[in-house]
Amino acid sequence: MTTGCIVAPLGFQAGSTYCGIKIAKDSLDLGIIFSAYPSTGAALFTTNQIYAAPVKLSRKIIQKGMGCVRAFVINSGNANACTGEQGYKDAAEMVSTAAACLKISEDELLIASTGIIGRPLPMEKITAGIQTAVNSLGNTQAHGDAMARAIMTTDTKQKSVAIRIKINGKEVSVGGIAKGAGMIAPNLATMLCFLTTDVSMPAELLSECLRNSAESSFNRITIDGHMSTNDTIAIIANGASGVTIAEKNNDLRTFQQGLDYVTSTLAKAIVMDGEGATKFVQIDVIGARSRNEATRIARSIADSPLVKTALNGEDPNWGRIVSAAGYAGVELDESKTTLYINDILIFAKGMPAQCDLNTLSASMKNKDIMIRLELGLGNYRDTVWTCDLSHEYVTINAEYHT
Amino acid sequence: MTTGCIVAPLGFQAGSTYCGIKIAKDSLDLGIIFSAYPSTGAALFTTNQIYAAPVKLSRKIIQKGMGCVRAFVINSGNANACTGEQGYKDAAEMVSTAAACLKISEDELLIASTGIIGRPLPMEKITAGIQTAVNSLGNTQAHGDAMARAIMTTDTKQKSVAIRIKINGKEVSVGGIAKGAGMIAPNLATMLCFLTTDVSMPAELLSECLRNSAESSFNRITIDGHMSTNDTIAIIANGASGVTIAEKNNDLRTFQQGLDYVTSTLAKAIVMDGEGATKFVQIDVIGARSRNEATRIARSIADSPLVKTALNGEDPNWGRIVSAAGYAGVELDESKTTLYINDILIFAKGMPAQCDLNTLSASMKNKDIMIRLELGLGNYRDTVWTCDLSHEYVTINAEYHT
């Protein structure tokens, strides 16, 4: 997935380097995304009560800076999480060094870290790395690709996408990179996503767009239900395209659609790169009393180890799916419940349906699996994307040693 | 675990048979527990919104019969779940056949089924099996052991225990059997527990004791977080010991302790027999603002696939434990959070602790693992028991085919 990159929108540069945080010398481990113009920004952070120093600091910065953001500085290989006061001081030093090198205010940049938990950041390496990354800033596809790799940990593929859309006759772009393979993989993961656009937009409106987009993308995926201490999604809008969106109008809707495309593409890429994943599974819950109830049921199915192992075994085990729906804490009516797997009706209004089991079994060999549960209770629906649970997942996570 | 059995209390008999529901001919698949005297009973059922016909019917019976229960009739090999109206008729037929054979009222017996989902009960076999089981009723250890085996599905070990306690100078007994290896294992599991006692007790008081006991035993275990459609816990008290407990006094407390011993022994036996389990893990959360918050955090840790795979890999991965606590939806203060694994301090008030890693690593090879998380927020605590997530779990559940 390298159609377009984080520096596709006008006025953005990226620079990255190997500064020695990771052990493997050919791995990039520090990257900077920089807007040549004053810009607005918005960010969402993990809701985990145990959150890392860079999350704590970036939350403060975005409040203090009133939504003016011009740069992201990210390191991989060390999460700077569970590191106490020293961790917070190190994060602050990362900000001041980067601000000095980029010649911007300390209130105009956000930082993020991903990697091992509970170890101090190697600050000498970080300081040198920031200087090198700033010196390497550029806006080619190669710069964008390197930036996408610089934030990877257990990811097996870089995740980067951009889209060009027309607003009011003018071309604007949205670009994005993401990383993540377990919601948190041991001490070496986290979900990160950085977005850029050359639209100009007030920070509040941008923040609303980002929240909307995250709701329908990153908040709809689950690999193992384990939330990271470092999750961060952030966007910068620099106005370099000459297009300004200042109110809730058709232009904003067009922009939202473009942003949604970028975030859902990246979110799905994370699921497809899920630790040990062999299947990409879409779970649609239809006919719920509210979206929230649809979400809870879809998540309950997606997070069930029994459903995930059945998918891994390519078995259309509808009993596991229906019973996982049943314990989601939502009132159901079994006699109205209907289930399709890969568009084949298998459970109809509370009773097993007569279906062509050969066709169904054959369809389970597909990489993409569709599960559609109809509740018959109302008009709301939701979709969650997940992957299967494989021997490889156990191997990756049981054989990893701290 | 065969110290004592379900017919240890006076005035109880058990009978079991192979009637042809299971494929393996040497497996028992139908059993009956019967009290020679009029008795009171109490039962708890799955809270899954998709619940099986026997659960639906037994719920009605216990309400209608005003807590008079003299018998349990249980089949394994077929759960009679997701079977629609026919399933309910079959359950009713199971009740009327058993009541006629046992010469008791249809309001005096509870039924339970466990096994494959979505297939009609083979009623001819069940009817014949009930007659055979009634003819084989007896009160020896062999009768009790056979009864424990008759309710097994994917279980590898029978789970049976009894305790003798003194109340008011007289000996009374509590016996129990249980089955379960996954909370629900595919189409072949469920958690069932049947208890007997020769104490006499009003149904309401008995029901309260059972709820208390379940709270501190079966409601404190999790193997894979997947709740069954058929879970049932039920007790009969027949008064054969001559001891009556009719109010909340010291005798009741003594009885409650005995019942708690039986239920927690059986609950732990289920975890130890968990699908693919190689570790028995106790998670203590201490210093919470409420018991509910302690429970939520303990469950969040217990159900994290990342924690479970680390335990399987015998790795003391404290980052996964602390971050799982962080997403339980409970407000935490990292700087007050402290973690012990196998009584070794590894995370102290928000910072990694200096500890003897060799000793810690060696202790991870134990079959029993203790995790103690101290929150420093209040005076409440809770304990949850779970097991690890192994390759064997994936094999059992991915290779099972419907």
Class computed from helices, strands and strand pairing of chain A: alpha+beta
CATH architecture of the largest domain in chain A: 4-Layer Sandwich
N-to-C SSE string of chain A, H for helix and E for strand: EEEHEHEHHEEEHEEHEHHHEEEHEEH
The coarse overall form of chain A would be: globular
CATH class of the largest domain in chain A: Alpha Beta
- Count interface residues per chain for the largest interface: A-B, 67 and 67 residues
Main location (chains A, B): cytoplasm
Enzyme class (chains A, B): transferase
Pfam family, one (chains A, B): ArgJ
Keywords (chains A, B): Acyltransferase, Amino-acid biosynthesis, Arginine biosynthesis, Autocatalytic cleavage, Cytoplasm, Multifunctional enzyme, Transferase
Describe the 3D structure:
Two copies of one chain form a homodimer. In chain A, strand 4 (71-78), helix 2 (84-102) and strand 5 form a beta-alpha-beta unit. With 402 residues, the first copy, chain A, is an alpha+beta fold. Chain A has two domains: 12-272, 4-Layer Sandwich (L-amino peptidase D-ALA esterase/amidase); 280-399, Ubiquitin-like (UB roll) (Roll), CATH 3.10.20.340. In chain A, helix 2 packs parallel to helix 3. In chain A, the strands form three sheets. In chain A, strands 9-16-11-15-12-13-14 form a seven-stranded mixed beta sheet. The first copy, chain A, has helices spanning 53-64, 84-102, 123-135, 141-150, 203-215, 250-272, 291-303, 305-312, 318-326, 357-363, 391-399, and strands at 12-17, 30-35, 40-45, 71-78, 109-116, 159-167, 170-179, 192-197, 221-222, 232-237, 280-288, 338-341, 344-348, 351-352, 368-374, 380-387. Chain A has eleven helices and 16 strands. Chain A is 34% helix and 25% strand. At the A-B interface, helix 8, helix 9, strand 14 and helix 11 of A face helix 8, helix 9, strand 14 and helix 11 of B. Chains A, B: Keywords: Acyltransferase, Amino-acid biosynthesis, Arginine biosynthesis, Autocatalytic cleavage, Cytoplasm, Multifunctional enzyme, Transferase. Chains A, B: Heterotetramer of two alpha and two beta chains. Chains A, B: Pathway: Amino-acid biosynthesis; L-arginine biosynthesis; L-ornithine and N-acetyl-L-glutamate from L-glutamate and N(2)-acetyl-L-ornithine (cyclic): step 1/1; Amino-acid biosynthesis; L-arginine biosynthesis; N(2)-acetyl-L-ornithine from L-glutamate: step 1/4. Chains A, B: The record marks 189-190 as: Cleavage.
